[in-house]
Inverse folding.
């Protein structure tokens, strides 16, 4: 498989984009970008509800602790234009992508504070489906990822992903992700991810994808 270099394939030359690991005090801003950017993803609609305002509040309450979890157990990358954060990618390091009981409880309590128990049940089923599909071998778990809508299709998502994948390649590690949008599966394919399986999670079509470690692909 031919792996791409870090140069973006999209015309973003008029945008000077800085990609860097975010510090702890930047995590609330990262969670806000992710809440805005992933509000309409089908799995979020399924778990957090059809009403956009309820969904925004519930998703935000979930993504706040999730981003903190990813930061403590991996890397949170940010894309900045003129100092403004406009895109975020989280990557969880091997062995950490199935949160321990204490972390699951923390997620559950924050969700319960703004949502009915049915949301908690859906959330639990969602996490269980993720865990069931996870490969047993050590892997980096990619996500969440979002770019603000007004900055999309300018190569920023690709730049974030290439930055993350370069880090993973340096470690000769493999990567795994799931996505609830077919168009995203095509995007990830161009970054070296292969489709492992496609199956519904809570009735939502979901694509599970794997990127082999750099040493096994040459
Ligand atoms: C996925 C996402 C991060 C890509 O960011 P981006 O900065 O637009 O990405 P790039 O400009 O580098 O690449 C664009 C590619 O994204 C894919 N894509 C994803 N959603 C798309 C959409 N609604 N329309 C067109 N292309 C889309 C296409 O493959 C596109 O490639 P193309 O421009 O060659 O057709 C962004 O679309 C996003 O934030 N989506 C909503 C949240 C989400 O789905 N996150 C991923 C969860 S797994």
């Amino acid at each position: 498989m031919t792996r791409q270099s870090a140069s973006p394939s999209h015309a973003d030359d008029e945008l000077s984009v800085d990609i860097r690991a975010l510090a702890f005090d930047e995590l609330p801003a990262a969670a806000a970008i992710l809440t805005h950017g992933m509000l309409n993803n089908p799995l979020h609609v399924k778990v957090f509800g059809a009403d956009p305002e309820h969904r925004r509040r519930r998703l935000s309450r979930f993504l706040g602790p999730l981003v903190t979890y990813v930061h403590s157990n991996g890397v949170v990358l940010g894309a900045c234009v003129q100092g403004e954060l406009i895109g975020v990618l989280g990557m969880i390091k091997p062995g950490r992508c199935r949160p321990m009981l204490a972390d699951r409880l923390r997620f559950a309590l924050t969700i319960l504070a703004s949502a009915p128990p049915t949301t908690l049940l859906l959330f639990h089923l969602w996490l269980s489906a993720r865990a069931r599909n996870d490969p047993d071998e050590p892997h980096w778990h990619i996500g969440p990822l979002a770019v603000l809508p007004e900055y999309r299709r300018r190569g920023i998502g690709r730049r974030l992903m290439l930055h993350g994948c370069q880090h993973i390649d340096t470690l000769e590690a493999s990567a795994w992700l799931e996505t609830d949008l077919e168009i995203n599966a095509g995007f990830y394919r161009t970054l070296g991810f292969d489709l492992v399986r496609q199956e519904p999670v809570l009735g939502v079509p979901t694509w599970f994808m794997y990127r082999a470690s750099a040493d096994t692909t040459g």
